[in-house]
Design a protein that fits this description.
Helix content of chain B: 40-55%
Distance between the termini of chain A: 136 Å
Radius of gyration of chain B: 22 Å
Oligomer: heterodimer
Number of strands of chain A: 26
Largest interface: A-B, 31 and 33 residues
Number of domains of chain A: 4
Shape of chain B: elongated
Strand content of chain B: 5-15%
CATH class of the largest domain in chain B: Mainly Alpha
Largest sheet of chain B: 3 strands, antiparallel
Shape of chain A: elongated
Helix content of chain A: 40-55%
Amino acid sequence: MSHPRPAEMDMSPPRKSFWRNLSFVWLVPIAALAVTLFIAWQSWAARGTLIEIRFTNAAGVTADETVVRYRDVSVGLVENVRFSADMESVIVAARIDQNVADNLPVDAQFWVVRPEVSARGISGLSTVLSGVYIEASFTPEPGAAASSFEGTNKAPLVLPGKKGTRLTIRASDGSRLSAGSPIFYRGIEVGSIEAPRLLDSGDGVVVEGFVEAPHDRRINSATRFWDVSGFSVSLGAGGLDLSVDSLASLVTGGISFDTVFSGGTTIDDDQVFDLFESEKSARESVFSDVIDNAVKLTVEFDESVSGLSAGSPVQYRGLRVGVVSAIGAFIEDTASGQTVKLRVTISIDPQSMGLQKDVRPAETLAFLAGAVKEGLRAQLAAKSIFSNTLVVDLVDAPDAPEATLGIFNGEFPVLPSIESDLPDVTATAEGLLQRVNDLPVEEVMEQAISLMASIEAVAAAEGTRTAPDAILALIEDARGLIGSEATQAIPQELRDTVGELRSTIAGLTKVTEDLQTADAVGQLVAALNAAEVAAEDFSGLSAELSEAGSEVPALIDDLRALTAKANSLEVEQLMTSAASFLDGADKLVDSEDMRALPAALTGALQEAQAALSQLREGGIVENANATLASASDAAKAVATAVETLPALSDRLARLVRQAEGTLAGYGNESSFNRETVAALREVRQAAAAVSKLARALERNPNSLLFGR
Amino acid sequence: MENTRTAPSVLTARAAGLIGCTQCGRVQTPGAARCIRCGSVLQSRDEASLQKVWAWFFAGLVVYVPANIYPMLRTSSLGKTTDSTILGGVIDLIHHGSIGIALIVFFASIVIPVGKFIAIAYLALSIRHRVKLSDHRRHILYEIVEFVGRWSMIDVFVVAILAALVQLDFAAHINPGIAAVSFALSVAFTMMSAQSFDPRLIWDANKGNPA
């Protein structure tokens, strides 16, 4: 295969110069390299400084994710999270932008921002989704470039650089204060407090607060802080007082302040304020030590100062002139041994006493010495009748024993005191409780229960049930006696006697006729005498009968009394009364008079008959008319006696009816019994109620005082 | 002739005294400076070809470094921002169980570019140095490199599409990182590098270096 002849090539020779031969394309890799190197250098230069922050825990902090922010701008990124060498804390290493790191002072604060929900609102909500971040706060300090920091768990109260005043507040109790609680000035939130912490001594809490500018200029030495946490209710002579502050302070607590008197001086950095319970006590606290020329006095009291405390007011005629600044005890040697006396230090504001504002203490003391000579004494007095809080009262007691203002070297002058006339409310209340406690409630209950038992036993006893039957039988007997033939025959016999007397008189008429013929006057007189005796017997009998009749009302009275007693449930007495009633009835029935009645009647009749027969046998008396008159008198007496008898029997019958009614009430199923049982039940219920009350009282004696 | 073993002896245009237009392929008579059909500059051999190849090659290599170091994607989801590099993304995908996608990304973003670098370097070196691969095979290799080069852009496309679509404010948004630009540049540079290579040199090498 023959190749075509190659044409003549017009070949230009290669350019020999290396540089001339160099393609401009080489600029591209050079530029790329330059750019890449520039980017590398830039990112290296901007990668910032590694700082270390020490946290107690690093919840939510993740390497390469958690950012560090300053004023909410991301200035760095956490590079790693590790433990410290002693495993006590967590060290978070973060790379911070160079320009920020250069300005980091040693006291820069770092804290982890987490979502937080509190009564004051929700914060850090964005971290719920994005995760936590570390917030930095510091006052930029060019060139400081610190690289090791202590992190806090919570956001600091005051961000560095914030203008305001930091202050320390001392409180007795921190239960109502929590971190972040607001500080109010006239209801405007002007600051906040940190979490309260215990004093080293443990007898109080201290809380740091911060009041923002410009409100902090309201604070001076005359400023008082008080607690506005929750709400306060006070009931006093002025009525019910309820005060509630903002809802937030209701939940988280809060502190309010105000300048309570003029002339306060600017405060030092380490000024410590006391936290008062309420605005009232804060305003009343003006006295303590703030008065420059206040005079301090000592008062010694023999009695208990329970209820008096440092801060209690000192009053003069009801006007507040000072304050109790301290209370203490000391031992005094006396002739009879050592006695403990209580010493109260009071400070008195001369201005309140009417002296000049700038009076010197010596002058105040001189004034007081004069007043003491006049009878000025210190006395404990109750603040109000509702409380046992005490105040020191300065009273004018001209009758008090002579005393002077004791001025000793080195100590406060001693103001003499007199015994207070305090109603010892405490003692009284205690006594009341003691008495309530001492009530023999248990014994009363036991006795009541045993009484109930005995009543029940008596009511249920065989004897009680049979007693009405016995009484009924007795009455039956009495009725039988009264209704007996002999007793009922008495009037008949009397009638017969009268009839016989009539026939006798008829005979006498005949005898008189005979007498007119025969002289039997003497015998007739004797017979008439006998008749007279009989008549006398009769009248005696009738007297006795009426006497017996008069006993019946008494018997009825007895019965009524018995009924009344039965009604009043005095069963035992009822039984005795019933017995005595029956005795009385028995006595009446069995009385000699009653029994003697028919015999006497019979005797009298027999005598009359005998007299008549003697008359019949004997001669006829002359003065038969006179005899007849006296016989007629006798007959009248007999008739009277006879007339009284029906009344007697009526009364007896009435007595029986009443007794029957009474006794019928005693029947087994009678209403009396039911009523008795019902009454017993009621008594038992009452007893149960009393015992319940007793138990309740035993459990809670206070309820007697408070009503529940 | 060594290469005659692997490939039949080829008469090149140059050997035939002709010039082929690289643009339209028309064979020109010697001495023509411009293609009579398309008007492009005629050059029997591009003397600066290897220079350009190496220049683009190095440029591509330089920008390939940050493309792998810096984050490709910046994903913000619900306030959480995650940066992922190419290799990190592949590892993440494997962790999530999407091994298939991980393989695609791995091939498209790492194997192909790296292979391209090696292939270009190999071809460029083969012009001056003796290599075992026959002329023909090297030409096929060149064709493959040139064809496959644009597919490396798949990563850049993915990032571009994601960044354009996923802009849901707080819920999620995706931004391209520095690496995306670097990678795109790297791909572009290697493509330029491949373009700059004058495959006719492959044949010349055999001619110029007879056994």
